[in-house]
Every structure is written in structure tokens, then in C-alpha cells.
């Protein structure tokens, strides 16, 4: 071993010890904060600010996202010193919802798989989970209507946002596709990989199932089948990746909401989501959206959904930049509440930091 290599390794050992000492000091401070607050340590706005500040201060050579993921795990471990956050998600284990939950809360949280999105909402509302992570829209396939309907009907609040790049893989127990007689996957994944499947496996029967994780489980038990699922499901069920990244859109991304029983405070880079309805008359939508434009509020999404109140009646989901406590946002919302037949603020939350 050369002297230079030996010295470099000694330096790394010394730095590791310094990092460990600093981590211990950080954990003691985090635990003390919990004692002073005598309550939940998790504050989504504070964590978003920390992750953004670290990215801005990052001198390299580690990329910003790598630094943020490392510190996400450090914060998760420090929070778990008091009590791990209980996070409900659409299960079973191995789904993209679980991956989104782990991305946002880190691996030290306690993750609770639920059979349906409704069950995630119920677990949070009843206090059986501290937070829930639910899919709200995909860049290819559009909104998850059931999530929007549940946000309208439930008292929970949106307090966070997660964006997850979705990579779909063709998985199987075997080393090749030749023996496969059926393909399991969730309907959304089949749609996201439609063109690839038409080109490469046009004659293979496609069997929709409840989740990608369920597809992987079935493929692990059926040697004459394959599945479309993510990397987490492949690892969980011991499947071979026959083809990676088969999604038709290379930018395929799913957006998730973090739901809880409290609001998030302003972080400096926030979004607000509301749902509203209007009387059915000419110019009604203009009257609702005009205050946003006049107060300089940047609307990022407008989505209509059928209302449960009557035939051909609709509610409108609106996302815009800013926090409900920001003066210009507060003024715009106040005018909306005067003009609209119904307004519900679903939550203000930090924009996804990673």
C-alpha cells in the first residue's frame, strides 16, 4: 500500500469519527427540542427549509440530491429517538407509494401499508397514523380522482408534497421472457408502458391487479408469468429485471400528497391547494379566478371533478404558489370566499424539496 493511499484512508477514518461525533451532538439537540416542545418534532416547513439550505450550501462533489437524501435520513433517525412517525400508505409493501413515503420521511419512520387510499385517510383521521402519503396525479395518466374526492370529504390537511420519478421494470422469476404466458400489473402501469408492450410483447395477455407490488408477488409465485413493477418490488420478491425503465415517457413522475391533522407553516417556497364550486352562470369561472391574477398569485393547476350534489355540477381543484398566510394569497382567498358558492382550503405545504 502506497504512503499516499494509507494517508488518505487515515484521513477518512478521522473524518468518519468527526462526523459521528457531530451526528451525536445533533441528535442530542434534536431530543432536547422535543423535550422543550413537549410534542411532535416533525415540522414539514422546517425540514424543507433545512434541505433547501443544504443544497444551496453544498460545495460538491456530491450532487445536491445526494446531500439532501443523506440529511433526510439523519433527520428521520433523530425524530425516531422520541417516537417514530407512523406513516400510512397505499400498500402492500413494495409499491411506489411506499417509495414516496420513504423518500419523504426517511427509513426510520414506521410505515403502515393500507389496502386502499380510503384506508389511508381513515387511519390519519382516526389518529392510528400520524401522516399518510397518497398519490394525487401522474404526469402521463393524469389525476387520481379518488384522492381528490377524499380530500374534499375528509377533514385532514395537506401538509407536504412528494414527487417521485417512476421507473417501470419488467420482472420475472426466470432469466428470460420466453416461457411467460401472462403479464401482471396495475392498470396505471400498463397504461404508462403501453407503447413498449405493443412493440415488444404484443401477444402476451395483460392481467390488471390491485397494485404493482401485488403483480410482483404473483409473478414470484408463478414461473409462467412476469410483472411490471418498480425496483423496490423486485428486491422484495426476489425477481430478475428482464428490462429496465420500460415506461413510455422518460420523465414519468407521480406527485403525492402528505396528509396529516395539522397545517404546515410557511417555508418560503410553498403551494396551496383549495377546492371550490361556482354557480352555473356565464362568466362564473372568470369571476373565481380573477382575484388570483389580480393579486399576482401564480396558479399551477385547475382540475374539475363531478360534484356529488347533482347531475352536471362540478367542483374545481386549484393549486397555486404561496402559503395561505402570505398577504397576497390571503387576500385572494378572502375574495374567493366572497364570490364562490363553496371554498375549502385543503392545505398549504412546502413544495417538494428533493
UniProtKB/TrEMBL annotation:
One of its GO terms (biological process) is chorismate metabolic process. Residues 1-86 form the Chorismate mutase domain. Catalyzes the Claisen rearrangement of chorismate to prephenate and the decarboxylation/dehydration of prephenate to phenylpyruvate. The keyword Lyase applies. Pathway: Metabolic intermediate biosynthesis; prephenate biosynthesis; prephenate from chorismate: step 1/1; Amino-acid biosynthesis; L-phenylalanine biosynthesis; phenylpyruvate from prephenate: step 1/1. The keyword Cytoplasm applies. SUPFAM superfamilies: ACT-like, Chorismate mutase II, Periplasmic binding protein-like II. It catalyses: chorismate = prephenate; prephenate + H(+) = 3-phenylpyruvate + CO2 + H2O. Its EC number is 4.2.1.51, 5.4.99.5. The record marks 254 as: Essential for prephenate dehydratase activity. Keywords: Amino-acid biosynthesis, Aromatic amino acid biosynthesis, Cytoplasm, Isomerase, Lyase, Multifunctional enzyme, Phenylalanine biosynthesis. This is Bifunctional chorismate mutase/prephenate dehydratase.
